[in-house]
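From: lab user (bench 3)
To: helpdesk
Subject: output format question, protein + NDP

Hello, I'm new to running complex predictions and I'm not sure whether the block I got back is the full result or only part of it. Here's what I submitted:
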Amino acid sequence: MAKKGTVTSGFSATPWTHSGEPGTHDRTGHEQRGHRKPMTLLFASSDSEDTETWVPVLRDTLSDRGVRAYPDIGPEEDIEYALVWKPEPGLLARLPNLKVIFSMGAGVDAVLKDETLPSHIPLIRMVDDSLTEGMTEYVVLHTLRIHRQAEAYRQQQAQQLWNPLPERLGRERPVGVMGLGVLGSDAAAMLSRLRFDVAGWSRSPKTIEGVTCFDGDDGFDTFLRRTEILINLLPLTPATTGLINAETLGKMPRGAHLINVARGLHVVDEDLLAALDDGHIASATLDVFGTEPLPADHRYWSHPSVTMTPHVASVTHARTAIKTVIENIRRLEAGEPLQNVVDRNRGY
Ligand code: NDP
Ligand code: OXD
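Helpdesk reply: Thanks, we reran it on our side. This is the complete output you should expect:
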């Protein structure tokens, strides 16, 4: 852990020193009693590894604040900020002085699914260069793996087969990115720089250099029909749940590939498995699943056309991602507009 008062993220905590006397922390980072309470941030993740990684960084960076780690939340009325990942339903509604909810992830579906979530409190999603860069790496890795037939060569090696396969140029490979937000637009632009024939699809019209952009229901069919490698980077909302199904997969050319890095519930699993069995979809690269961890008896585990990773396409790095938390706390306290606020009506 960095020395108290120094900041691993490179950001100073001093600009938002509380007007009252800040609280102090003992060596475990717990607030000491007898001081006026600092503005307190609650870190609440369902994953204990997140707590181990994030809480020391938060306590270093927000050294003039109280930082509490779920489930040890202390007096609920102290908590003004909450940084969460898949929080326990009902938790946020119990905090009477909560001002802002920060999502550790770019996707906020797990936060929004809590029916008790207070509707008047701004929800901020994670936008961070580390998340964007990690996602683009993953998308490029798997697009190239598919494009350059890495799996076929691996199988040939296992059979000691020396058999060059016909190769195509990237510019001859139509790739489609669903969702042209922070992550999708970066991945699409990078694939275009690698000279793939890239299209993208979003709700509202977009202009991205080197990317043919489609939007709305009208653009969806044309987008699907041209796409040989489909990359899903949509948020999970009522409008996008189950969008990758027999009908949409059926519109893609035979032998097309799917890379799903958004949410498992975008996919109707039975429809995808049927399309893989039939060969209409040649392969699926899946990082996200309707139930995580994926149940042991799920067919994806052993399907020869499925490549799986355990929801690691991109990971939020505490040391960089904390910037967005700090900047938004500064903005709130300075009376400035917040950044990356989720539109509750759209669901992302
Ligand atoms: P953004 O909110 O920045 O972008 C979402 C994009 O999806 C926008 O272009 C939006 O269109 C488009 N969109 C939303 N609804 C529709 C719709 N009904 N029809 C067509 N387009 C739609 O999100 P991010 O890029 O930051 O993140 C995308 C998702 O990636 C997250 O929600 C999360 O689920 C997933 N993710 C997965 C990770 C992993 O490790 N597997 C890591 C991080 C994120 P418009 O621009 O017009 O609003
Ligand atoms: C996210 C994720 O939404 O990691 O950030 O899935």
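A quick orientation on your result: The chain is about 30% helix and 15% strand. Let us know if anything else is unclear.
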